[in-house]
Prior knowledge:
This protein is mainly alpha-helical.
Amino acid sequence: xxxxxxxxxxxxxxxxxxxxxxxxxxxxxxxxxxxxxxxxxxxxxxxxxxxxxxxxxxxxxxxxxxxxxxxxxxxxxxxxxxxxxxxxxxxxxxxxxxxxxxxxxxxxxxxxxxxxxxxxxxxxxxxxxxxxxxxxxxxxxxxxxxxxxxxxxxxxxxxxxxxxxxxxxxxxxxxxxxxxxxxxxxxxxxxxxxxxxxxxxxxxxxxxxxxxxxxxxxxxxxxxxxxxxxxxxxxxxxxxxxxxxxxxxxxxxxxxxxxxxxxxxxxxxxxxxxxxxxxxxxxxxxxxxxxxxxxxxxxxxxxxxxxxxxxxxxxxxxxxxxxxxxxxxxxxxxxxxxxxxxxx
Length: 344
Ligand code: ATP
Ligand code: MG
């Protein structure tokens, strides 16, 4: 069965947005607007799977929204809202908790990494995170999901959940007139040279909002001096940059910086190495700083302006939530019929 093409993705309001979020996700969100209907969500229900200070959370939700708009997402043509304003996400997540299997969730590496050694003390929500993510996507029956490489495993789980729901309820799905399958198999869109931006302090760890070291990431709110300082201090190895892309596989820090450069310049790593192969890191880093500042300064200025107008941000979220909810309610009504719930 053919599903209408629809893009969905989300970003958590968990702290400082960074270059990884921008290149791995937000830049793709902006591009897809030209070819698809898009729904972009500030996933605050996901954020509270780890502790969030209630006095800080509203600011973080508005800041992610401001970043979406500042990056060029058109919230009137597309939909931008925060997850907690559309209760159907949580409602469908519950049903998916009863579809997904413990064994599936036990394999999720994000839970293992975030829970760390003290797994007994992690929230139940952190464990169930992927079923809520499946609900976020499937409550709109979305078909395409632009994400960074770290979310690939969760996307695969979303596909498994969609498939198991379609199989388990096949008779009811047919009976209610939805044909062979009620949910699509959402496709991950993970493309380009910066699908996994790494920490500036350790080329084997992903850049994260939750990394305690601010030196590990470029925040979207960093000014030019801070960006320059962080890139100059970024870990490297003692060799000049290679000519051949294959050599990057053994040099995670070089790979990361070249990937960042290529993504910002809209080119490939191979092309970037044609320019910088044989160069010292110090030379390359100067060019990288210039490019980063040129790309991030306008975004930074627009985010600052929007952060000064919370009433406007809230109106964007309210309008987006109303439009999203209208779609989500339709799906949930059908899901309730399929599952066999009695409703008004
Ligand atoms: P947290 O540490 O709280 O999980 P995060 O930095 O991982 O924060 P998320 O809100 O979880 O950010 O992810 C938002 C989007 O950014 C997702 O699509 C995710 O795949 C992408 N993303 C996150 N980190 C990176 C990264 N280092 N490189 C590329 N994409 C990334
Ligand atoms: Mg994350």
